[in-house]
Amino acid sequence: MINQRIEQKGQLKVLPQKIQFLNFLYLNRQELQMRIENELIENPLLELKEASDDNKESDDLVADYKGVEEYMYDDIPDYKYEYQNYLPETSHVDKPLEERVDFREDLKKQLGLLETDEVTRELATYVIDSLNDYGMLETDVESLAEEFSFKEQRLIETESIERAVQLIQTLEPPGIGTSSVKESLLRQLERVERKDPVCRKAIELLSLHYEQLATGSFDRIREQMQLDEEEFQTVIQYLSRFSPHPLIVTDVEEEKKQVIVPDVFVWKQDDRFLVSLNNAYGERLMLSNCWASLPEQLSEKQRRQTNKYIKSKTTAANWFISAVQQRENTMLKIMEAIVQLQAAYFEEGDTSQIKPMILKQVADVTGMDISTVSRATANKYAETAFGMVSLKELFTEGVHNTEGETVSNRIIRQNIKDIIAGENKSDPFTDQQITDTLKKNGIMIARRTVTKYREQLQIPVAHLRKLSAQIQH
Fold this sequence. Notes:
The chain has 20 helices and 8 strands. The chain is α+β, with helices and mostly antiparallel strands.
């Protein structure tokens, strides 16, 4: 018997062009430039006009005239124009740049010596590039799998990322690729001779009693581990020999970081802020007319094939130009909204003036989706009068103080950092004492929130800071 049934289903489909445009938003300044250069090579119908083509000749004439008028009768000696006379003594213009090998490149070299399949090697390389400056993995494997799948437009399972992470954790230095201080210390201890009874006790302490160690419940730990006070102190001192992170970043190394190329510029003119893109491409990309006319000697078949090829490349070039222009318009709208919401900060660059701001606020101002704002601000930097600014660092949540004002969690983290910096090293503040100090300053947050922010600052607990100070002295 034949039955007829009507069903209604809802299905969400994302066009390939939409996915490619979102990938465009995720690219930073250097990556976009490489993407355009590759497209110029692959598509002969796409051209990039030089930025200075229109004004180059007139600029040269003005420069020549200026040189004649200003310097014809100038009797100032040439040595007065030497740049050394106008630079402070602290400048190091002639100092050669130090060649530094990034730890990620070293990890990739180690990875190349291992026998593994191509997919795992590719995923491991992606994970290595996702490590922070301390060699730790802050992003969870689910997010990494999603980001890689979206970027490469092919599905990658979470298990594949987990295998890549496990592979990286076998590399040097010990603890590389871990996601927490506990895991980092355990990986380092596992590389040591585990026949040492103190090492085994240290592993047991971290594996079973880390939460109690973080809260300072020493008596309970000694009771559960069946250790006397002297034995417990021996285990703690042994544990303090290891770094909480695989890599230690000093202030000198921070200064030697690579130069960052900004994506946008923000400056103030009169009473308002202006925003512009760094080397915009939208108006410079155009269709080439080199294929406007076909050679007469082509056969009818060759002519049809050529016309088909030209039509295909023309469509691709038009879409590419449109995508670049849309990306630039989106970036400008989002950056203008950020400057509007953070106007107090952009006045002088005082981080204490950063207001709590989330992606939804910018999305509401621009009328865009939250995911669009997230991708457009990821790995992007703005050049301002007070230096380079990471757009992601401007997004912070906040809490209300005793006066009813909203305080950014970035300000709270800075307060915690300042409190710990000014503490007595032989008797450091506990998280509860830090909480009480913040309350006196009008910031009402829970102790567990202080613990979370302290860990985000990569600052160990009080008793470990005390042990570290004792060892150093």
